[in-house]
Design goal:
The protein is α/β, with parallel strands linked by helices. It has one domain: Alpha-Beta Complex (Spore Coat Polysaccharide Biosynthesis Protein SpsA, Chain A), CATH 3.90.550.10. The protein is built from seven helices and 14 strands. Strands 1, 4, 5, 6, 8, 9, 10, 11, 12 and 13 form a ten-stranded mixed beta sheet that branches. It has a two-stranded antiparallel sheet with strand order 2-3. Strand 2 and strand 3 form a beta hairpin. Helix 3 packs across helix 6. The chain starts with a strand and ends with a helix.
Length: 241
């Protein structure tokens, strides 16, 4: 199985570090976020990984070379000319990921001990197009699922914005879940992507949800830290030694 790590973002929430470095190289107890996620994938036998880069891309190139990929075979998807967001970044590496096996995506700035074997087993059992890891933690933006765990839409609690193909049915009970940014895709997803250029995975999920099964996999109880802000570094360092 192959994986993609999204590491191209500008890291605006992680200033001042990101004024001079890519967020993916921020250190947690002496190891970069990128290294930690590569080693996380290695625990599940995943050693072929593609990493997209944009912001201070050269530093990521250098870190990978100096550390021999931390024991994995790493490929770079270079977005220095144009930042494509998560969905566009995924579409750009279609040729590399589009084979017979499911593949995994994760964000460089998320640390978790989610059991990938269990997520993959869930995906193989239920056979959706996409299986996304979720929990019921507090956040400002939620994906909305029905009682069978199928994606129905998305909600921003701060603005009240709602999007999704099934939200017209106001009598239907919807369950809010927070997105963990660890996802299993069937390679056939590339046949259904209606966008080109720059777009987010959120846009993609909502565009596909009506005609294709997208399921949430609840991994409540696992460690998960969004290291998107400097104030979350001490939290991450307390959980990931």
């Amino acid at each position: 199985m192959k994986a993609m790590i999204f590491a191209a973002g500008l890291g605006t929430r992680f200033k001042p570090w990101t004024d001079e470095h890519p967020k993916a190289l921020a250190l947690i107890n002496g190891k970069s976020l990128l290294q930690r996620n590569i080693e996380y994938l290695q625990q599940y036998g995943i050693r072929e990984v593609i990493v997209n880069v944009h912001h201070f891309a050269g530093q990521i190139y250098d870190a990978i070379k100096e550390n021999n990929g931390w024991g994995s075979t790493l490929y770079i998807s270079d977005e220095q000319d144009r930042l494509l967001d998560t969905g566009g970044g995924l579409l750009k590496v279609k040729r590399w990921l589009n084979n017979k096996e499911p593949f995994i995506t994760l964000n460089a700035d998320i640390l978790t001990d989610l059991d990938l074997d269990k997520l993959i087993a869930f995906h193989r059992q239920h056979r959706p197009l996409i299986s996304m890891a979720v929990t019921n933690r507090q956040t400002s933006r939620y994906f909305l699922f029905d009682e069978n765990g199928r994606l129905q839409g998305w909600r921003n609690k701060k603005t009240g914005e709602e999007r999704g193909p099934f939200l017209k049915n106001k009598t239907k009970r919807l369950i809010e879940k927070a997105y963990s940014c660890v996802v299993v895709f069937e390679p056939s997803v590339f046949s259904y992507i209606p966008f080109t250029g720059k777009f987010s995975l959120v846009d993609l999920y909502l565009a596909l949800a009506e005609d294709h099964t997208i399921l949430g996999y609840d991994h409540i109880g696992d460690k998960l830290v969004d290291v998107g802000k400097p104030e979350n570094v001490p939290v991450a360092e307390s959980l990931f030694l």
